[in-house]
């Protein structure tokens, strides 16, 4: 089994705010991340796939094909967006943990049959905050 990881970047803004909490509870829960005007990040995203190398090509996946899928479903979809305004976050708080879930859902919906397994999504929100979703 071989794992390939590709790195990508995009910028987006968000506001951490739950409709299940009062304004005071949101401020207490999310602190400065509950700023009514939101705040932005330069997200660094790693997408990992795992599978066997193709005996003919010697590769686990065509990196260009993976790049095209990530570009259309992640970079274009989330880049320069205010995450709270996207349908992905209608029912969930726009945390980076939930961003990983939203990325996984978007990729899984368009994942071609026969491709290796989508193995891991890792997001660096800041130098101190990294989030990882493993399948």
The major beta sheet can be summarized as: 4 strands, antiparallel
Q: Indicate the percent of residues in helices.
A: 25-40%
- How far apart the termini lie comes to 15 Å
Quote the average pLDDT: 97
User: How large is the share of residues in beta strands?
Assistant: 25-35%
Number of strands: 4
Helical/strand content category:
alpha+beta
Q: What is the gyration radius calculated from CA atoms?
A: 17 Å
- H-E string: EHEHHEE
Could you give the order of strands across the largest sheet? 1-2-3-4
Contiguous helical run count: 3
Which spans have pLDDT < 50 for at least 5 consecutive residues?
A: none
Structural shape: elongated
Task: Describe the structure in brief.
29% of the residues lie in helices and 29% in strands.
Give keywords.
3 helices; 135 residues; single chain; 4-stranded antiparallel sheet; 4 strands; alpha+beta
If you had to describe this structure to a student in words, what would you say it looks like?
There is one protein chain. The chain is of the alpha+beta class. Helix content is 29%, strand content 29%. The protein contains three helices and four strands. The protein has helices spanning 23-30, 63-78, 96-110, and strands at residues 2-14, 39-51, 117-124, 130-134. Strands 1-2-3-4 form a four-stranded antiparallel β-sheet, with helices on one face. Helix 2 (63-78) packs across helix 3 (96-110). The longest helix has 16 residues, at 63-78. The model has no long low-confidence stretch (mean pLDDT 97).
């Amino acid at each position: 089994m071989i794992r390939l990881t590709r790195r990508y970047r995009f910028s987006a803004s968000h506001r951490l705010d739950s409709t299940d909490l009062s304004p005071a509870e949101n401020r207490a829960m999310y602190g400065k991340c509950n700023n009514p005007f939101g705040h932005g990040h330069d997200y660094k995203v790693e997408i990992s796939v795992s599978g066997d190398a193709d005996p003919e090509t010697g590769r686990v996946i065509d990196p260009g094909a993976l790049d095209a899928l990530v570009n259309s479903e992640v970079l274009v979809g989330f880049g320069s967006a205010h995450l709270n305004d996207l349908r992905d976050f209608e029912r969930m708080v726009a945390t980076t943990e939930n961003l990983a879930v939203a990325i996984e859902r978007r990729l899984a919906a368009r994942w071609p049959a026969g491709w290796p397994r989508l193995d891991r999504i890792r997001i660096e929100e800041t130098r101190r905050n990294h989030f990882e979703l493993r399948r």
